[in-house]
Prior knowledge:
Elements: H1 2-15, E1 18-20, E2 32-34, H2 36-56, E3 60-62, E4 67-69, H3 70-75, H4 78-81, E5 83-89, E6 95-97, H5 98-106, H6 115-124, E7 136-143, E8 147-149, E9 157-160, H7 165-170, H8 172-178, E10 185-194, E11 209-219, H9 229-232, E12 236-240, H10 242-246, E13 253-256, H11 257-262, H12 269-285, E14 292-296, E15 308-316, E16 320-331, H13 333-342, E17 348-350, E18 353-355, E19 358-365, H14 367-377, E20 378-381, E21 384-387, E22 398-402, H15 409-422, E23 427-429, H16 435-444, E24 449-453, H17 455-460, E25 462-467, E26 473-477, H18 481-489, E27 500-501
Parallel strand pairs: 3-10, 12-14, 22-23, 22-24
Antiparallel strand pairs: 1-2, 4-9, 5-6, 5-7, 8-9, 10-11, 11-19, 12-13, 14-15, 15-16, 16-19, 17-18, 20-21, 24-25, 25-26, 26-27
Bound molecules: zinc ion (ZN).
Amino acid sequence: MKQKHEEVMELARRRGFIWPSFEIYGGVSGFYDFGPLGAIMKNKIIQKWREFYVVGEGFFEIDSPTITPEEVLRASGHVDHFVDAMVECQKCGEAFKVTDLAREQTGKYIEGAPKEEMEEFIKKNKMRCLECGGELGKVFDFNAMFRTAIGPGNKRVGYLRPETAQGIFIDFKRLQRHARGKLPFGVVQIGKGYRNEISPRQGIIRLREFTMAEAEVFFDPEDQHHPKFSEMAGEQLRLWLAKDQEKDDKKLTEVIVEQAVKRGLVCNELMAYYLGFTKRFLLELGIPGAAIRFREQTSGQRAHYSKETWDAEVLTERFGWVEIAGIAYRTDYDLSRHAKFSKEDLTIFSGGKKVLCHVVEPSYGIDRPFYCTLEHSYVPEGKRKYLRLKKWLAPITVGVFPLLNRDGMPEKALDVHKSLRSKGFMTEYDDAGSIGRRYARADEIGTPYCVTVDHQTLEDGTVTIRNRDTAAQVRVTLAELPRILHSVICEEAQFESVGKPVKE
Ligand SMILES: [Zn+2]
């Protein structure tokens, strides 16, 4: 069903969530702007992620440059291994990423297959150019990093970072001192990452510049225990095991976190803990549990640094299962490579011995869950189409309207709007068109509550609050309005119980 995607994107452009970048110059694929409402919502997702990882897990946050000198990315393996297999049309010259083309034309994942096998696959499946139907040429490697020069001339090569993680590994010595040698400890970084995609044609799902949120959890390989594991042990997971994918079997394995480790499906407690943690984060955004699964990457699909990786995937109508986060066991790969290339000793002294830390990395994109949240919140109810966003996530929390544009109602409503803003509520004042149209406009962008000033307000100082999801209304006093709004937004109180029901 392509229609829902198109309706959501139309809404997103028209109401200021997201739109293609550089539009007046014809646009460049792989780049999107966040508009006034989208920027608020994206920041709320980032802030929620911080609540999970920085507040909840107690991880440190750093902020390092996005331009990275070549030697760092040579050590990390990205100069040699951050490549996409590419193929060109013999007729029109259009370039394609082989794995994307294979998925689009055959539905199969061929990530990590050797070039000869990919060429064989293209022949066997009679894959052709998407633009002109022409024949495809040889498969070759394309390094997906954006290259630049640091300073004038070409003496010092730099790249836009392909991941935020390297900034954390580089700072490891200072960070472990900050952690006072205690293991495990975690460090996060949130910021832009870059991947020079060959021919992105999936809109917001495949960007060349995107926002990442990554956590690196450093631990002693002889102690792979998570201190809060017992809190996560019972969380249910749906796993698509690598061995089932290799047999072309779509079967999912349902298992709780604790059993996933005991049965050896997930390699250690830390990995399994962060699968459960990622699921909880996605639920918090409003993604339904039935649309979440974890796919184990097969050995060919894994990045060069990883021993085991699970992709958290969310089901979408337009793009099928979309990877939102990867939870990777990076072992001591990065620290040992940086120790070797920089000649710094990156071992630490912990628990009476020298330790070269291992790393588990939960790594998220922010743009994809942003889109998935919009798609899953979109409710087309006959003529009424609206976003059933989680209350905390809606960019505008409260709409404030005068019932009519006369008799002092607009002035009073503006007072209410200003007073709520001064108390930290993200409100929007609207007096254009009929009250019904204003409710519809607020519903469309997911505003959970609308406050209306009417004749009775001027007599007794009460207003109505309308609930987006049920269209039910209650009447409350202006004096109590901020407290009541707070309690319903935080879901501490039932909407129906906070005031006198209004009969329509
Ligand atoms: Zn072609």
